[in-house]
Structure formats: C-alpha cells, structure tokens
TrEMBL record:
Organism: Polyangium mundeleinium
PROSITE patterns: PROKAR_LIPOPROTEIN (PS51257)
Lineage: Bacteria, Pseudomonadati, Myxococcota, Polyangia, Polyangiales
Protein keywords: Signal
Annotated signal peptide: 1-23
Protein known as: Transglycosylase SLT domain-containing protein
Amino acid sequence: MVQRRRIVMGLFGLGALGLGACARSMPMPGETTSSAEGGSAASASAVTSASAAAPAATALPAGTTAPAAAPAPSPARWADAVRLERWDEAEAQLDALPEVDRQRPEMRYVRGRVALERGDAARTVELFTGLEKELPLLVDDIVRRRAEAASVAGPFAEAAAFFGKSRSPSDQHRAALALEKDGQLAQARSILDRALAAAGRSRKKSDEAKLRAARARIAEAQGLMPIAIADLRWLAVEAAGLPEGEAGAAALDRLKQSLAPKDQLARALTLVRAGQAESAVPILDELEKKKTVPLLDVLHARAEAKLKARDYPEAEKAFRVLSTLPGPRKVEAMYQSANALARGGQADEAIKRWLDLASRFKKNSWAERSLYQAARWLLLRGRYDEAAPLYTRYLALFPKGAYREDAEYEQALAQLSASQPKVAQKTLGRLAKAAKKPDEAQKLRELEGLAAFRAGDRDEAVRIWTEVARTFPLSFAALAARSRLAAAGAPLPPLIEPAAVRPANPLDLDLPDPARLLVSIGLDAEAEGRLVPFEREAAARFAGREAEALCGMYGKLAHARRRYRVGVAQVGMPQLLRAPGEADRWAWECLYPRPYLDEVQKLEGEHEVPRGLVHSLMRQESAFDQEALSPVLAVGLLQLMPKTAEKAAAEVGMSFEPSRLKSPHVNLRLGSYYIGKLLKTFRKNPVLAVASYNAGPKAVGQWMRPGVDAEADLWVARIPYDETRNYVARVLGNLARYQWMEGGDAAVAPLVLEVPVDVEVPPDAY
C-alpha cells in the first residue's frame, strides 16, 4: 500500500493511500455551518433529510429570470439510495415523486444519472437533452454524461465528436465504439491505432486490453483478419485473467485459431500472476500431454499454480517430482515441496525437510531460506527451546543474510517464551532503540516489558509498560501495555491525556454551489471532485486554520476519501497524543472519518460486529476509496476479493455481479457479513478475526495450536507475515480511536490477552 504522509503516522494506522470525508448534515443555500458541527456521528441519512429533500438552488446566467420555485419534494430515501448506489431503489423512488418534482432540473439530472448507471442510456440521452441550459452549474458534466450515453444509444456521431477530441485512452475508446456503431469502421480503427500507441507508452494494461479488444472486433468486421488475430493473441496471453483477455481466448477458439505452445505457457503464467491459478492448471496439463514445450518449464509452472491455488497436497507432489529431476531449479523445488507441506498442515515434516536441505547444500540461497523457515515454523509450533538455537545457527552461518533482522526479532520471541527472558529483554531493548518507526519501537518496548516481568523484574516491567501506554495512547502497543499492567495489579495511567482547555471558535464554512447541489442529490463522490479545485481558495479565507477549514469542508460530504488525505498531510502527531477538545476534535474526525455511518452501524448490528470495526478495516484497507483496486484485484472500500465476495453473496442470499462490487452498498454489505463470519469462527476474538481478514482463516489456523505461549501481544508478535502483523496492530489501534470518539474512555474495549488457540477452522473456510 502506498503511504503519503507529512509526518510519521504509522502508529495510528494511516497506511494505504489516505483520503477522506465523513457523513454529516448538509445546510441549504444561505446557511452556514461550523467546522465543529455535524461531526462523524452525523450520517448519510442526515444529509438526505437536510438537503436531498430540497435540492440546492441553481445559479442562473446573468440576465436570466428564475422560474417560480416548485414545491420541494418531501423528505425521501432516494438520495440515500443514490449515495449508496442502490440504483434500482433510487429509480423506483424517484419515479414515484410527483410530476412537478420530477421535472425540476436537478431531479432530471439525478434521474438521468441513475438511468446511466442502470444501463438505460437512451433514457439518459432523453433526460439530458437541453438540460445544460436549465442547470448551468453542471453544464460540463451534463454534456459529458450525455455523450457517454450517446456512445451507447446514439446519436453516435455526436458522441464520437465529443470523445474524439480527448487524448485519454478511455475517451478514445468511447469515440471508437460510437463510430463503430455508426458504421464508420475505418475511422474507428484509426482512432484505436492512435490510442494504442499512447496506451503502450503508458503501460497500463487494462487500457490497452480494452482498446485491443475493440480493434480486434472492428478488424474482424472489416475482414482484416491478421490484425484481428494478432490483437486476440495479445489479449489471450498478456491480458489473461482480465475480461478482455478471456474474451480474446474465446474468440480465438471461435475462429479456430490456436496459441503457439510457448504462448500457451505464457498465458498460464499470466493467469497465475493474476490470481487465477486454477484456470492455468488445465492449460499446463494439456501442454504436458503434448510435450511441445520443455517439460521442466511446464512442471514448474504447474507446481507454482497448484501452490498459488492453495492445493497444497498436489503442489507438494508436483514440487517433489521436480526435486528428483536434474536442472538448475532442483534445490528450489525441494524447498517449495516443504513449503507446500507446511502450508497444508504438515509443518513437522516440512521442518525435517528444510533442515535436511540446509545441511546438504550449506551456503546455497535456498539452504538459507530453509534454515530460516525451519526456525520460524518451530517458533510457530511452540517448540521454543528448539527454535532459539536454530536462529543462532542461522545468524552465525549468514551474518549478512536476507532474513537477519527477522531472525534476531524472532529469536528474541523464542527466548521470551522459553527459559531465557533476560536474554530476550536485552535483544528487544536493542531492537526498540534501533527501530525506525515510532509504532514499531513501542511494540518492541511492550514486549521488552514482558521479558522483564518474566525475568522477575516487575518494577522495570511496570515502568516500561506505563511509559508505552502514555507515549502512544490508543495504539495496539498501548492497549497491550495496559492489559499487562492490569494483569500485574499495577496502577493504570490515563487512557489518554485529557484535552487542552481551549474555547472553540467555529469556522463558517460552505460549499461551492456545484458541490452543494451534487451533495443535495446524493452524488457526494462527484461533489468531492468539484471541491478539490477550490481547496486553495477555501483555505486562504482561514489563515492559520487552513487544515481545519479543509477538513470541515470535506466533512460535509458522505464520501470519505479526500478528507482523509487532507488529514494525513496536515494533522500533526501532537494533536493525536491527547484527547480532543471542542476546539480540535476536527483533527480526529479528519483522520478517523465514518462514511455511510447509518448503513455501517446497521450492518455491524446485524452481523454482531463491534461498533467501529468496519470503519477501522475500511481505513486500513482502502483509505475510504471506493474505487480502490489492489494488484491482486481486491475491490472497493473493504478490499474484497471477488471469489470471497461471491461466496459471501451466496450465503446472504444476494445476487453477485462483479461489476457492482465497488458500490458502497454491495461492498459494505458483503464485507460486514464476512468480518462477522470470521468473528463467529474465532469466538468473537477481534485479534484472530482481523488477522484472518488480511491473511485468510486457514493461514491463521496454522498459527494456532494448544499449548503455545499465545497471549494476544505475543501471538500478534509471532505472525509470520510483516504485512499481517502490522495490519492487525493498526486496525485494532483504529478501533480504539473510533470507540473513544463515540463514547470516551468507557467505550474503549480493553485488549483481551487470552487468545483461543484451540479453535478449529472448518475445511470450507474462505
């Protein structure tokens, strides 16, 4: 995840491309709102009742006489439906309004937008025709959206003329589609040729795939089969896993054109990298039968596909066969066969194989990995007395090894849980001093306190834990330190230092008219885009309080993206180290917004999810960006993998459309259900459930076994993936702040040290 921040904010979980805004009530034209009003507790439905019921006034060109105002529609749920992208519901509610309301320019606009989202392009063209004269605030958007609809439903020439002026690959794609539908195939292909040259330079494969798919279709219609087939081959290989790639492969089959064997192998490898390893296996099986490419290449690709598909028994067999064959990857295959065993639940046998490999090949890089993995899995299995000396052996053999830092840290954990807490204390203290990030240093310090306690130095442990709890309040390290202090019978410091006494001096903030109008009809995401160009102007009006002004302005939206980015860039750490008062609560709300609050809290209640956990996950997963798409194709606010979402949809009785997964309504519903399911699996333990949300329940099941030293701070410290370990700490730190914002000290749930390591993860867990 990309992190953009002015200061080090890792402790508070600010990772992941920060953006933001939280839902709050929206004033009508002529009103003003303090930046301290309508805080995170306000909801999307509050926005609707205050403003969507009566769309904002429209600015008219000079010299134009305003028509008599029609009665405002009565408060309704349609704006909430638009805001959450429940398009069918929005259409029904808008169409049920009185005719006089439906004919208002704002209402025609939102109805046209709903029609476009539902695929009724002809209705959008009808509603938007001439609308720019009645709704000049949104003239650019109306013209563009009408052209977008016209590219589907006509008039096609108009759409081609509009999009043909743009250099954007997506706009040129639209222009070509319009020309294609207008029968102007040569002109359409000419545009695609130019667009593909630009797309190739940008190296954005998704753009290139759309353009090549269109050109292949047009070239085939023109009878230019060499061009069509070349594009289809590119799609089948380079875009494998994308919809266009799979359509390209199907088109080659239809045309009775086959990929060369080396291209079939390349297609299989692309599918593996795209997270669709299961689809690669049949291709590789066929290549093995035909023996048209080197056997070793096919076998390695199939073994990798089985491993990525989590078919661990078959992956182990495939790598074991490879390990018996001569070739440069023989030792790698030995390592991976043990790796598949460990992941498949046979860690003890895997450890034996790794140790054998390490003893046979000494300084080989795969021997280094094997020795380190053997030590790590001994740690995870609770065999601490065996793990600690194995880490010592690794560090001696590979003083500059790739895993040296991890080995030192994990060795200290093994010593802490064995009979060497004093040695662990010294190592953890040294690592804490060397840590580059404050949050990492404090997690190490908390463990250093535990080592001191187990070594019999209670006073030193209490001193360290108290310091950690005071230094970074409401972080995972601070929560763990407080739980340790309570267990030791020591006095607890304040959960967080009290707020500075400073009188509030509210800012009078308002939105520019276009953004104001868009918010009033539920299109907060578009409103956010309209606000960005006004940031400098808006901030300039409030010298010395620019960040507060921007956060307050974005806080009027029910879309939580840009506000968070502003907070990450502008809010300093000192503002988070003490409780907020009336004068500075805006800073916390900026960094911990609660978008779609009513919907989220309804879903949390329905699925027995602790209040604030969904927003805590959202903050870490997508930084409140509903358009977020990860490299492994996780989607939306809660970064759902399509296969996970499909299974969750089946369990809640919801139809699944991959194209709708970015919708807040769909993403929140399925993500909330899924975290609730994980909580049920892991006996409502948030540590295990949050770890499972990131790494998967089966992986978490591998890290638990009865008899291990598994109190919460130690269990998290031993998570073998840095990403998951930091993820758990940040999400639980987020949760503590969301809880504090809702109810103060009393609302913050203490970290329960006991972790239920005897949980049985069901075979069908996903």
